[in-house]
Amino acid sequence: MTARRGGGPTMHDVGRLAQVSAMTVSRVLKNDPGVSEATRERVFAAVDRLGYRRNETARSLRLGGSGMIGLVVTNLANPFYSRLALGVQEVLTEHGFRMMLSNTGEQTEREPGLVDGLIDHRVEGLIVVPAGSRQQHLADAMRHVPVVLAARPPAGLDTDCVLVEDFHGAREATACLLAEGHTRIAFLGNPPALYTGAERLRGFWAAHEESGVEPDNTLIRQGLVDAATAERAALELLDLPEGPTALFCTNNRISQGAIRALYKAGTTLPLAGFDDFDLSDILGLPLTLVSYDADEIGRQAARLLIDRLGHRDAEPPASRRVTVPTRVIRYGPHGHPGGRAFGSTPPPTA
Amino acid sequence: MTARRGGGPTMHDVGRLAQVSAMTVSRVLKNDPGVSEATRERVFAAVDRLGYRRNETARSLRLGGSGMIGLVVTNLANPFYSRLALGVQEVLTEHGFRMMLSNTGEQTEREPGLVDGLIDHRVEGLIVVPAGSRQQHLADAMRHVPVVLAARPPAGLDTDCVLVEDFHGAREATACLLAEGHTRIAFLGNPPALYTGAERLRGFWAAHEESGVEPDNTLIRQGLVDAATAERAALELLDLPEGPTALFCTNNRISQGAIRALYKAGTTLPLAGFDDFDLSDILGLPLTLVSYDADEIGRQAARLLIDRLGHRDAEPPASRRVTVPTRVIRYGPHGHPGGRAFGSTPPPTA
DNA sequence: CTGTTAGCGCGTTCAG
DNA sequence: CTGAACGCGCTAACAG
């Protein structure tokens, strides 16, 4: 730890040691062809000797671009977000950008602050999975840099976004249950103010209509925010005199809460839901999961953003909406309502 | 998107609009007391009107400190690392630092490059979970900034680190199996070149010695890197004429691979291992898991680093080693060797 | 092939 | 209470 506060050798220091000006050092480090081999070597030697590292902060100030883009997510511990982040990272790296990550920790109200922070650090663009329904702060952000939304559509904003086939996936999974004869399917959903919540309910509902089955409103529980709330809601439903014969869950955490509820209640019901998760294939439960590639959402979002950064000076292209496909996967035993006991586990169906 | 390349209003622009110098703007934004209320208001009005945001890049250049620390991990998609990252984030935020995250994506050879990148961006410190056994690049990094290691001890380096009770946890969990009468316990481990791998094997071995049981070398498989390799190794072991009656796994991915192997082999064996994971409690398998708080590793590492940053000018304190405790948790049915069929599932024991 | 000048946006220092 | 000068480390543009 040689570094004094703000310390470390500068190009000047390197130049002095190599007997050249700072400018020449800059050229060497940039691989500028117009430098004699002799000086190149002297410069590199000096760089090595001093342990010199070019100061990217000063560099981006001078160049007027940080090479950095910001990603805002709510909860890195949720594999959906960490996967998405990895997808973003991957594409950014290919294009020579770096990622600056901000995590709201499920505190929706922190999002505007984090966005501002990223702008203060002069990210050149922003990818956001908006946590709440208010997006005014994103409109503000768009005054500074392009913004791409991931997994949620813009609300009162004109910008690119990457969406999952929420409606389609929910409809298809629900249809599987209906096809097996279920007519009392409970719906366990996140807050309907969230796009995904609303859209997945719509798919759930549409599947019912197409089967001529009337959804039972008493079996619909929305506003669930985590596994714990989902578990409680599911236990209540299972306790009903006229309970459900199957469950539909709008995301991985809700599915896991519901599964725990089934376990505690000592019963087994077919469960459909969004998001595949670890070990889902060996739980021995009849699962119908809507799977999709969270990495791909991140990759696509990054591509949209980078493309838009390319057109910075030109007329901005019309805003685009990309969709990532879903796929229904079925695990465990499947049959007609009133299935078997927890734990009978033939190998996976799909 | 008003921003030209490198664009956006500056303090000068704000100052002109507010009829003051840039200096005064700077003072207002810094909450410097020596500014009249009237000008304050004019400045804030101008800031609002222009959507001005202070340029943190220029700021850190001038101040000689970026307020940023770097975190290097191998795989964000592994909950261990994402949790650790959240813990780091939490403490940094409390102290007014920001985090810059780099992910090697399991490519050990990329780690030095990522570390350099962070130094180029003038992080003031580094928290690293070293992926390989070579740490020379970290010694280089220490010439520039303080480095704290997480989950692995320094090798040929003199610096702070935060460790898990690897030995103790492995010994305790293994002892549980031995106490139940198991004498043929398989060991499924990550590469022994990794500290955790070696240490956990040591604990496994110690427990055997203490019970007077001779470990069977043919049941020890090391060098497993993910769930897939673990699954294959476990299947091989299960296929042995004199197979194991229980399994010990050194991390969550290996446990999951082994569990999948048990499932495919249609058998049930007690399994002990490091890391708790989602739904472990309802698998209905006899599990003995060594649990610990990954967030806490991150928090402690961040505290060590921040403390060290406080002593920047003084004599650096001797390097410290902090340990995060483990706790053994047992799930599912437990009894004597030759247990029950997959799927008999009374409620959790602990 | 190499050096000089100038300035990116900001804050410290010192004068008013 | 406010402003001017200077420099953080780097590089584009222009000399030589």
From TrEMBL, chains A, B:
Q: Does the keyword DNA-binding apply?
A: yes
Keywords associated with the record: DNA-binding, Transcription, Transcription regulation
Q: Does the keyword Transcription apply?
A: yes
Coiled-coil ranges per UniProt: none
What's one Pfam family the UniProt record gives for this protein? Peripla_BP_1
Start and end of every HTH lacI-type domain?
A: 9-63
Q: What is this protein called?
A: LacI family transcriptional regulator
Q: From which organism does this entry originate?
A: Streptomyces spinosisporus
Taxonomic lineage of the native organism: Bacteria, Bacillati, Actinomycetota, Actinomycetes, Kitasatosporales
